[in-house]
Specification:
about 270 residues, five-stranded parallel beta sheet, 14 strands, about 10% strand, Ser_AcTrfase_N_sf, transferase, LbH_SAT
């Protein structure tokens, strides 16, 4: 019995990728990008750390890419993008500090904000996704999901100055397109109306144009659904059709308030 399992595993993967190695590499890269542990004030140390992270990436790529030349091309390409990546992430960081009244400093956001970590890891994973490298971007996105409760598919297209507030329970699907200066609160789903395998190459998830705000627990579905620029989507709404620019969409609920004395027994339920 165990030999059969062994043979099946060998058929599936000649050299299985080390998930923990990818996760550790992401942490090292984020620390290096933003000097989170303040170890890099010595430039020589900073350079040596960059070389080590570069070598570690090549080792990871070797598990999923057979051609040695491609490994070098992919790793070099990633580090060619690193200054632009840092620039875009710095804009995301500035956006959070400027618009979240609870954020007291950049250091606080870097160390303690799960939303910024999720955005950072997404932007890293998205580079690998665009290169067509298998598995690695999904491992990165699921690592973030397990740490933060934020699930961003690495194939999504997300513009600059992206702001996730709180973040727990956010789901952003593969073909989602998000413009610039967009803010999303916890529990938001940007999902698909259909999960059929035949639609794998079709745009299944919504588009958010520039300057859109989506409040908590809103659900927006469908590849043809476009949320127009400068719109505000209130909490708990369910949207499957496009919304014009400069719109305010909200769900109206009724709340009753009564005196506790109106009830013959206290509302003290035990489940």
């Amino acid at each position: 019995m165990s030999y059969t399992i062994y043979i099946k595993n060998q058929e599936r993967a000649k050299s299985p990728i080390d998930k923990k190695q990818v996760e550790n590499w992401v942490d090292e890269l984020v620390n290096w990008l933003f000097d989170i542990n303040q170890e890099y004030n010595n430039y020589r140390f900073f350079q040596n750390k960059e070389k080590l992270i570069h070598i570690q990436l090549q080792d990871i790529l070797a598990k999923v890419v057979d051609d040695t030349d491609e490994i070098l091309v992919y790793s070099n390409y990633f580090f060619d993008q690193i200054e632009h990546l840092h620039y875009v992430l710095n804009n995301d960081l500035e956006t959070i500090v400027n618009f979240d009244p609870a954020a007291k400093s950049k250091e606080e956001v870097l160390i303690a904000y799960p939303g910024f970590f999720a955005i950072t890891a997404y932007r890293i994973a998205n580079i690998f996704w665009k290169l067509g490298i298998p598995i690695i971007p999904r491992i990165i996105s699921e690592y973030v999901h397990s740490r933060t409760g934020i699930d961003i598919h690495p194939g999504a297209e997300i513009g600059e100055n992206f702001f996730i507030d709180h973040g727990t329970g956010i789901v952003i699907g593969e073909t989602t397109k998000i413009g610039n200066n967009v803010k999303i609160y916890q529990g938001v789903t940007l999902g698909a109306l259909s999960v059929s395998k035949e639609n794998v190459s079709v745009k299944r998830h919504p588009t958010l144009e520039d300057n859109v705000t989506i409040y908590a627990n809103a659900t927006i579905l469908g590849g043809n659904t476009i949320i127009g620029a400068n719109s505000i989507i209130g909490g708990n709404v369910w949207i499957t059709q496009s919304i014009p620019q400069n719109s305010l969409v909200y769900h109206k609920s009724e709340i009753e308030i009564k005196k506790k004395s109106d009830f013959p027994e206290p509302l003290n339920y035990v489940i």
